[in-house]
Amino acid sequence: MGYAEQLFDLTDRVVLITGGSRGLGREMAFAAARCGADVVIASRNMDNCVAAAAEVEAATGRSAMPYQVHVGRWDQLDGLVEATYARFGKVDTLINNAGMSPLYDKLTDVTEKLFDSVVNLNLKGPFRLSALVGEKMMAAGRGSIINVSSTGSLRPGADIIPYAAAKAGLNAMTEGLARAFAPTVRVNTLMAGPFLTDISKAWNLEAATHNPFGHLALQRAGDPPEIVGAALFLASDASSFTTGSIVRADGGIP
Ligand SMILES: NC(=O)c1ccc[n+]([C@@H]2O[C@H](COP(=O)([O-])OP(=O)(O)OC[C@H]3O[C@@H](n4cnc5c(N)ncnc54)[C@H](OP(=O)(O)O)[C@@H]3O)[C@@H](O)[C@H]2O)c1
């Protein structure tokens, strides 16, 4: 095994990824399995989870467990954790990735139901899952938790305020959890800038008359596989002295 391979090695680790069926989560699931991990792919649409898990297994030879869960529903998260530990006996890395950022025209269009569902998915679910898995990681003597946040939490646009606030809460939660689970379990934020996933389909890019990403240093949006380097860094022992931090993969926001 080469030096870099060893540094990022995840052989026989177990990586649980919410929202692992599509977009950035799917990329991270494949990447973890390519580095030797067994993975749990959890999202609401079981067919998508099953398909993604089958593709991961075929491509990597590692085990991939599909699991249907709504991360915004607190009472469904115990089942996810129980099923994961029943199948694999441990979780080495938890990636709280499932998220959504519904756009709206004006603030009064945001209903209480929509506000609650944004907070439930982007903040409340990750808190509960981190609590459940983090305690087990502490007992096992190792672990890494990655919370996928957004540069919107630092520079909130007018059309994503509840989402930005939830992700800002996630940033704060990361620091608190890093202390709660120290020194055994590391907890970090992986902060994404704009990536061309299903989320970006709502951005109406075709109508833009100028480069909508011109304000970024790299002047473009990210391709989903470009999340992988930072994710593997945080998931593996390559980041053994990194906790409570924010790692940005954002094309260089101003
Ligand atoms: N793409 C971007 O530009 C961008 C920028 C900044 C931050 N992020 C963050 O990156 C993360 C991944 O985003 P993405 O772009 O990959 O999104 P995506 O392509 O829309 O994929 C979202 C994933 O989350 C799952 N999901 C959605 N709601 C869920 C729920 N209630 N319970 C469980 N799973 C759920 C989806 O599967 P199901 O539909 O089957 O549930 C899917 O697997 C999110 O946290 C997002 O906020 C993305």
TrEMBL record:
Keyword field: Oxidoreductase
Keyword field contains Transit peptide: no
CDD domains, per the entry: SDR_c
Ranges annotated as spanning the membrane: none
Gene3D superfamilies, per database record: NAD(P)-binding Rossmann-like Domain (3.40.50.720)
Any GO molecular function: oxidoreductase activity
Domain of life: Bacteria
Domain Ketoreductase, chain residue ranges per copy: 13-199
Protein name: SDR family oxidoreductase
